[in-house]
Design brief:
Low-confidence stretches: none
CATH superfamily: Ribonuclease Inhibitor
Distance between the termini: 41 Å
Shape: globular
CATH architecture: Alpha-Beta Horseshoe
Number of strands: 5
CATH topology: Leucine-rich repeat, LRR (right-handed beta-alpha superhelix)
Length: about 150
């Protein structure tokens, strides 16, 4: 996969959903996309990604101009980590227009996840279905963010 991705330095859309490549596979994707600066749409849903890969995802986001990111149906609760690294990727996150985090936060949607989503100032599409809101005030804060 890495070699194929490296040979296409101008990919705009990449759908790797449902391949089940896991954290190790995401590292190969990162290496393959290292020289691609124009990737706009990245779908890595359903790949059995865990919290162990969050640094790889942040690194990938710092080197591309992703406008649409789908990380749904993985085993992540990485919002706090990405929020902590916001300054590193501040040029990437605000420009993202579409984000799909369906069925991602296995431990529940808490205040860190609301903070995480609030960084995306230009979202025109946000999908959060199949996530659990831990406390009612988190849901209230989330709805407040949306309005």
């Amino acid at each position: 996969m890495e070699t194929v991705l490296q040979s296409h330095k101008v990919l705009n859309f990449l759908d790797l959903s449902g391949l089940g490549f896991g954290d190790k596979g995401l590292k190969y994707v990162q290496w393959g996309l290292a020289k691609n600066r124009v990737l706009r749409d990245l779908n890595i849903s359903g790949n059995d990604l865990s919290n162990d890969c969050k640094h790889i995802l942040v690194e990938m986001l710092t080197h591309t101009i992703v406008k649409s990111l789908d990380i749904s149906y993985n085993h992540l609760s990485m919002a706090g980590y990405i929020a902590d690294r916001f300054l590193e990727i501040k040029g990437v996150i605000p420009s993202m227009a579409e984000l799909n985090i369906s069925n991602v936060f296995k431990s529940g949607f808490d205040d860190k996840e609301v903070l995480f989503v609030s960084y995306f100032k230009r979202l025109t599409s946000l999908t959060i279905d199949k996530n659990i809101f831990e406390k009612s005030f988190v849901f209230r804060d989330f709805i407040t963010f949306l309005t």
